[in-house]
Amino acid sequence: MASLVALIVAIAASVPLVVEGKLETGVALLGAQEGDPRWHYAGKFGYAIGAGSYDVRVRVRGLAEMVSVNLEVYLDEEWDRAQSLPACRRSLITPARKTHVLRATDEWGPWMGGVLEQNVRPHIWYFALSKCIGHVTNSI
Predict the structure, then answer these.
(1) 72 vs 65: CA distance, rounded Å
(2) Rounded to whole angstroms, how far apart are CA atoms 4 and 15?
(3) Predicted TM-score of the model (pTM)
(4) Among 60, 56, 69, which Cα is nearest to 125's?
(5) What is the 3-state secondary structure (H, E, C) of the chain?
(6) pLDDT tens digits, residue range 57-109?
(7) Residues 89, 135 contacting (CB under 8 angstroms)
(8) CA atoms within 13 A on the CB side of 77
């Protein structure tokens, strides 16, 4: 019996870790008034070859009405080009690979998820929030 337990422990110790995660939180001030920031870098995440997932949600501080914010997901190969453009032209000239509309009030909005796939090599994916259309002046 002891040899069976040792074998199970040895097998379990040799199995590589197949799941990793990263949690990133922060505050973004986005607005629609002249001079307000309308685009905010939210973070970057590395994904190995294959499929990887992400989930995101937002809330608005101090505002009870529903607002919408765009989540834009850029591939590392397109990030420098996107960064060189004016904030509200980025997704038009260098389209984000994925875009989600996130809705929230002063309560957390629903989780919005997606899947990113890499077939040739691992990639870094960049995430940004934008409010280029509409009105938000509170912190998200």
Answers:
(1) 23
(2) 17
(3) 0.76
(4) 56
(5) CHHHHHHHHHHHHHCCCCCCCCCCCCCCECCCCCCCCCEEEEEEEEECCEEEEEEECCCCCCCCCCEEEEEEEEEHHHHHHHHCCCHHHHHHHCCCCEEEEEEECCCCCCCEEEEEEECCCCEEEEEEEECCCCCCCCEC
(6) 888 887 778 888 899 999 999 899 888 888 888 777 777 888 888 888 888 88
(7) no
(8) 6
